[in-house]
Amino acid sequence: MSDFHKLTVAAVDTLTPNSVAITFDIAANLKNTFSYSPGQYITIKHTINNDEVRRAYSISSAPSSGKLTVGIKKVEGGTFSVYANSKIKVGDVLEVMLPEGRFTFEPNQKIQNIAAFAAGSGITPIISIAQTVLESNASNTFVLVYGNQNPVETMYHSQILELQEKFGERFFVQFVYSKVSEPDCLFGRIETSTVNLILKNKFKEISFEAFYLCGPEAMINSVSDTLKSNGVSEDKIYFELFTTSDTEDTLAENLDGKTKIEVLVDDETFSFEMDQKILILDAVLKENIDAPYSCQGGVCSSCIARVTEGKAAMVNNQILTDGEVAEGLILTCQAHPTTATIKVDYDDV
Fold this sequence. Notes:
alpha/beta
């Protein structure tokens, strides 16, 4: 199920002093296989210093471009992000999993007004969504609020200005900088007052069909709470976490048993016994089972599986809806088995 393909790097473009855009060459026979919806991500697998590293990166190119591009910001102390910004070059071959993810925009025939709030590298899926919104209907509008330290560290700054020039009065951008003051830009961070300025002042005449939020957890929570307090229904708010706060695993402290687990992956069944204090994904990988995963932090959705027998409890869940949890879906990187036996199906998701 971890369906990786070897792709050649076609271009490496510097976005900021600390970020690059990497474009992959997609062979003709893989074009349909690697088709994607705006907002989805890919998982890249590579061996660095003899260790296998997997990282999920949102696709920044729009499907209409015919390209597969991701933006990667260097993270202090990071492994793959540092490697990508200093070592990757045209012609290198990386293993890439097929596009996935639920933070998507699907064009339709209706006129749509969309707003997005992004911070830092949270722009990567948003710029793909923005371009698709604007291209899919000549009457659609898109409002972007984008926070960074300064213009120099603003990923896709020039591309955003190009969208502004191309789509004129249908694309509006409000830059927010926390370290410098710039003309026509807000100073500080994206917070309650920023959201209120957009909804109650600058664009009070516009009725938005959806809001897309991407960036740090604190920003997403603040923006989401403010939107709801302004009467925006929860089903209009979509978010993608790039980072999340560390959650203490208090569940493990109260578990002290063993579980006989049966795992279904790619129509193949594996059975073994595991300690309930261990997370399901960790136990599965320890058995050398090729289950899908990427972030291992509850941020992406790569490791989702369905519990078909028994029960599991999650330490943290920022992705699955209450309805999906009720149907038996779990993030295996966040889940402990809580019954003596459990069956987990990675294929039925």
